[in-house]
Design goal:
The strands form two sheets. The chain has a seven-stranded parallel beta sheet, covered by helices on one side. Strands 4-8-7 form a three-stranded antiparallel beta sheet, with helices on one face. Helix 7 links the parallel strand 9 and strand 10. It is an alpha/beta fold. It is globular, with a radius of gyration of 17 Å. It is built from seven helices and ten strands. Bound molecules: fructose -6-phosphate.
Length: 241
């Protein structure tokens, strides 16, 4: 895995945004995989600025997001659909029909997951997948456990994720306890992967992912199996490696 260590969050976001711009300029109809969460917000902000400045054109881009709570209405301000609209999609010239996010309103979530993987495959696969990492080493909603699931699937959230994310909901009962997430195969099948890691509270997860063996205790450690991964860390997140 290629590592780039940046002074701070702003620099990390800049390096990531530049990488995405290069990808899109080389292949204007790229298929991009996006993550939600606080980590990529700075990168998305820069992409918005670069789009307005004419440095990146989203008009031919197709996107697939990693995950979504289930069940959740798109209009819920905690849905990942809402997050992506607010932080990127409604601010750039992407065509709404080219945006794909697992549907938290689907009546048959298992069928939704199968269709999601089929659509990625039918369009030729993801060219560049952007990832963040959980403090426990999760990627997407693939949580540490005895086993990991390859394909896009419905998963229960772990207590640590419920604890971390329930603060954003009015109360813990109103937070969905399941999610739809791309699986490890769906993620590793991307042609290129870039994972962003910032903050001291991610240092242990970064060390485990980069320096330990491959194990289901760290879903992110499976990225070691991929031949084109760029890890962009800030100094705090890189402090233990
Ligand atoms: C969200 C996702 C998650 C986050 C991870 C880190 O789409 O894939 O795996 O990347 O939970 O979240 P933040 O960036 O909020 O620390």
């Amino acid at each position: 895995m290629k590592k780039t260590i940046c002074k701070n969050y702003e620099k990390m976001s800049e390096v990531a945004a530049d990488l995405i711009v290069r990808q899109v300029n080389l292949k204007p109809n790229s298929i991009l995989g996006f993550a939600t969460g606080s980590t990529p917000v700075g990168t998305y902000k820069l992409l918005e600025e670069y789009n307005k400045a004419g440095k990146i054109d989203f008009s031919e881009i197709t996107t697939f997001n990693l995950d979504e709570y289930y069940p959740i209405f798109r209009s819920n301000d905690q849905s990942y659909y809402y997050f992506m609209q607010k932080n990127l999609f409604s601010n750039v010239n992407i065509k709404p029909e080219n945006i794909n996010i697992p549907n938290g309103e689907a009546s048959d979530p298992d069928a939704e997951c199968v269709a999601y993987d089929e659509k990625i495959k039918a369009l030729g696969g993801i060219d560049l997948q952007v990832l963040g990492i959980g403090r426990n080493g999760h990627i997407g909603f693939n949580e540490p456990g005895d086993e990991l699931i390859a394909q896009t699937h419905v998963t229960g959230l772990t207590q640590s994720t419920i604890d971390a994310n329930s603060v954003f909901f009015p109360n813990v009962d109103s937070m969905p306890k399941r999610a739809l997430t791309m699986g490890l195969y769906s993620i590793l099948n991307a042609k290129k992967i870039v994972i962003l890691i910032n903050g001291a509270n991610k240092a242990q997860a970064a060390k485990r992912m980069l320096c330990g063996g491959i194990g289901t205790d760290s879903p992110a450690s499976f990225l070691q199996l991929h031949s084109d991964v760029t890890v962009i860390l800030d100094e705090e997140a890189a402090s233990l490696i």
